[in-house]
């Protein structure tokens, strides 16, 4: 009951303005009596004689001003007292309930839900003044309601594989948490909030706990956190280096220790906006963030969950400073998957986005090792990898880069194209390879003939070397068969020697 709900606060008695809550609750209606007037949360008023109402001590937070009851509506008190009522309602919402049991404390939960809605509406109206006491109470209320320890994620397997196909987990307390997040967002974005005062309460500890919430399994909560953290980063300039460092530590722990975190995509989305706002020239700190934090995020198996956000961050760096193209492509080649075909397809997709943002000068510095890797992808026995590599030639910008450097690129990948045409099992890969070869032929037919001649010459050399090895082994086998067996001398056992006579 509500009496139990309010009993969690320090008691403060008032002889003239006390209310008996024990008999004032019916269903979801909360009836408060002030100066002889009974008001319900539906806005109705019932007059009565104050002397005939049996009163008892009302229970309110210690910080509530005498005569201001937190259950009153804002429109029922004079304007000068609304700020005090705002603080009183915030204190009232500092009580946390167990939402795992929907039948427990239903009346109190409804009361808190209604109070939170009133707080959000009051903050949205612009009437709320975020003085230092109000800031302290808001941060306290958010701390009590939002900051919590999540249970272990038993759904995640030890391999850290992607869990895209699994249904997301929804927090049963979201109906209340959503309103608290809405209030926090309006508080942070309010023009009346002075960052110099608020930074004492929205401090490093508060930010760290807010970042910890990104590991929530509820996607709705992570989406709210993403917006709030972006606003905090924008408003509190003094905290920006700390936020970047704290997020970097989350990424380090994810990549090199756990490979488990639910909010990597949302954190990267926040940093996508942050990177786009970096001033030029880029600081060395930001370049180190690219190499030490973003590039290693290609290592985990669950990269597909945040691939889109990661690619956006990389392309933002390249657009800011084109010279970083070499850093990005070298990072991709460093972490290129060897045995994971699905991940290799993702790398090729990301590589296409990176190349779209690459200029000719930077492309020429990295094209040789890059197309060696692409050439090996063209010959992949996994048809999706080979097909995705061939689709790169459908991009006009990439074709333009290749056309300007075909004298270097074609000799590197021509053997892979020829092998596909001769022996690849997939008809789709075969057709795409023929189209790519035709494209090169249209660019420079003489170069194709030169590459074909070199390929046939190299193939003849390899066949001659293979025949030479075969003859050498045959001679060794003949010599070994003629040697007598003595002691522990190793001998070559021919198929005829393995026959067992019964």
UniProtKB/TrEMBL annotation:
One Pfam assignment:
B56
Any GO CC annotation of this UniProt entry: protein phosphatase type 2A complex
The UniProt entry, under Gene3D superfamilies, shows:
Leucine-rich Repeat Variant
Asked if the Swiss-Prot or TrEMBL record annotates the protein with the keyword Cytoplasm, the reply is yes
Spell out the SUPFAM superfamilies in the cross-references: ARM repeat
Any one Gene Ontology BP term: signal transduction
Q: Which UniProt keywords apply?
A: Cytoplasm
What compartments host this protein? Answer: Cytoplasm
Q: Name one GO molecular function term.
A: protein phosphatase regulator activity
KW Cytoplasm (keyword) present:
yes
Question: Its biological function?
Answer: The B regulatory subunit might modulate substrate selectivity and catalytic activity, and also might direct the localization of the catalytic enzyme to a particular subcellular compartment.
Tell me the protein family, please.
Answer: Belongs to the phosphatase 2A regulatory subunit B56 family.
What is this protein's record name?
Serine/threonine protein phosphatase 2A regulatory subunit
* Native species: Protea cynaroides
Taxonomic lineage from the root: Eukaryota, Viridiplantae, Streptophyta, Embryophyta, Tracheophyta
């Amino acid at each position: 009951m509500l009496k139990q709900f309010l009993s969690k606060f320090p008691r403060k008695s008032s002889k003239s303005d006390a209310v008996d809550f024990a008999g004032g609750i019916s269903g979801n209606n909360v009836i408060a009596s002030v100066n002889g007037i009974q008001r319900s949360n539906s806005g109705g008023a019932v007059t009565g004689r104050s002397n005939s109402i049996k009163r008892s001590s009302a229970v309110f937070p210690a910080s509530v001003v005498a005569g201001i009851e937190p259950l009153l509506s804002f429109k029922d008190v004079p304007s000068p007292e609304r700020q005090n009522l705002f603080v009183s309602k915030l204190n009232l919402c500092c009580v946390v309930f167990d939402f795992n049991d929907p039948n427990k404390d239903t009346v109190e939960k409804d009361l808190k839900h209604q109070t939170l809605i009133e707080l959000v509406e009051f903050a949205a109206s612009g009437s709320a003044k975020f003085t230092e006491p109000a800031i302290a109470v808001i941060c306290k209320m958010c701390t009590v309601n939002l900051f919590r320890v999540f249970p272990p994620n038993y759904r995640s397997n030890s391999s850290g594989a992607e869990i895209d196909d699994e249904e997301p987990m929804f927090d049963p307390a979201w109906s209340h948490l959503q309103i608290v997040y809405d209030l926090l967002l309006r508080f942070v974005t309010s023009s009346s909030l002075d960052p110099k005062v608020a930074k004492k309460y929205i401090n490093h500890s508060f930010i760290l706990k807010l970042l910890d919430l990104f590991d929530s399994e509820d996607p709705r909560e992570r989406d709210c956190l993403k917006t709030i953290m972006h606003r905090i980063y924008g408003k509190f300039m003094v905290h920006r280096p700390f936020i970047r460092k704290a997020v970097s530590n989350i990424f380090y722990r994810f990549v090199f220790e756990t490979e488990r975190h639910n909010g990597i995509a949302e954190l990267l989305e926040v940093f996508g906006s942050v990177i786009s706002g970096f001033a030029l020239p880029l600081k060395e700190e930001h370049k180190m963030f690219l190499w030490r934090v973003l590039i290693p995020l290609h290592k985990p198996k669950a990269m597909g969950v945040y691939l889109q956000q990661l690619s956006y961050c990389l392309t933002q760096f390249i657009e800011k400073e084109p010279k970083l193209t070499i850093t990005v492509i070298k990072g991709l080649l460093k972490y290129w998957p060897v045995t994971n075909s699905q991940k290799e397809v993702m790398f090729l997709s990301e590589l296409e986005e990176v190349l779209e943002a690459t200029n000719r000068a930077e492309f020429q510095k990295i094209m040789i090792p890059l197309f060696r890797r692409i050439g090996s992808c063209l010959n992949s026995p996994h048809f999706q990898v080979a097909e995705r590599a061939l689709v790169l030639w459908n991009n006009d910008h990439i074709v333009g880069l290749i056309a300007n450097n075909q004298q270097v690129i074609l000799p590197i990948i021509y053997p892979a194209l020829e092998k596909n045409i001769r022996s690849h099992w997939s008809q789709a890969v075969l057709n795409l390879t023929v189209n790519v070869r035709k494209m090169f032929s249209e660019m420079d037919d003489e170069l194709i003939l030169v590459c074909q001649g070199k390929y046939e010459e190299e193939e003849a050399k390899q066949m001659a070397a293979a025949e030479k090895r075969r003859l050498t082994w045959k001679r060794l086998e003949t010599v070994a068969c003629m040697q007598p067996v003595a002691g522990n001398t190793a001998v070559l056992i021919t198929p005829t020697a393995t026959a067992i006579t019964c």
